[in-house]
Amino acid sequence: MHARQRFGALVISALGALGGSALAAQTPAAPQITVSGVVFTQYQYVDAPVHNNTFEVQRAYVNVLGRFANGISTRVTTDIQPAAVGNQIIRLKYAFAAWTPTGSSLTYKLGMIQTPYVDFEETLWDYRMQGTIAVDRNGALTSADVGFGVDGRWNNEAVNAQVALVNGEGYSGGTGDFRKDLEARVSFRLKPTNDASRVGGMRVTGYLGIGKATGGADRNRYLGLLSYKTQQYTLAGEYVARTDGAVDGSIISAFGVYRFTGGKTAAIARIDIVDPNTAVANNKVTRIIAGASYQLSPNIRLLADLDRQSFESGATDINQILFQAQFVF
Questions:
Q1: pTM of whole model > 0.90?
Q2: Could you list the residue range(s) of the whole structural domain that residue 3 is in?
Q3: Is 25 in the same domain as 38?
């Protein structure tokens, strides 16, 4: 082959390689779709006001997650729960698209999204299988709503925050009227521990929710949380002030988790003190939860606990013995 021919072949080969590289660069990565789920089931014995015992599936969630090019992701989660008549009902829990720009500390979400606080505390408490946290169980906050939100995290989770503008009626309460709620949470890590997650270390967390319910009544929430979490134990306490129209209420909640050596066995304890109307005497409700859990496998966790409610009004105490299980797939 003459020198001119060899040079021409070399040029053609180089152009072909460049063209192939350009084509590969223009071809977007294939979307990644994953399906997962979690189920909470239990045996419940109640001694009052009516003796009863039941086997129940309290919740079943199915998650479909999508990851796409350019920092786009999606999530759809169905919430399957018991209906009043004993059948199961299916409703949406989450349904949103999210965008995290390349190199950004912010993620933008639109649709039926996580509200700023409940998911954060559920991650810290880590025993949603026992039941909802105090602010959710007593109607102060909801875990999801329809609207627009921004999540942020900085300095390896030393600071994380979320702000959202939502309908305010929750994911099961409809769209409401033209009024909207502004909700925001920020959490600062004051001291690191061997838990570097977004809830790990000694943290102070604040939450603010301001809005008006359908019809115009004030709906305001002010919350402060102090927590300390390591890989071995968790301690946390919070105070919540709430306003619903002309009624002011409060919630105090404190909880702890101790994980024994080996990580499979843990002891849990929690107390919630709920005052639905601070202007009315003798209406506080105190709930005490105590139990022990065992991680049977990476997919199955078991929990035995006592759940006791006592009433300042003098109403009959409610005592529950629960054997609960969490299945993850």
A1: no
A2: 1-30
A3: no
pLDDT score at 13: 53
Q: What pLDDT does 7 receive? A: 42
Number of structural domains found in the chain: 2
Does residue 180 share a domain with residue 131? yes
- The confidence score (pLDDT) of residue 197 equals 96
pLDDT tens track for 233-289: 999 999 999 999 999 999 999 999 999 999 899 999 999 999 999 999 999 999 999
Q: Looking at the structure, do residues 169 and 155 belong to the same domain, yes or no? A: yes
The reply to whether 77 and 17 lie within a common domain is no
The answer on 295 and 212 residing in a single domain is yes
**Amino acid, res. 301:** R
49 lies in the same domain as 68: yes
Q: Which residues of the chain have pLDDT under 50?
A: 1, 3-4, 7-8, 10-12, 14-15, 17-25
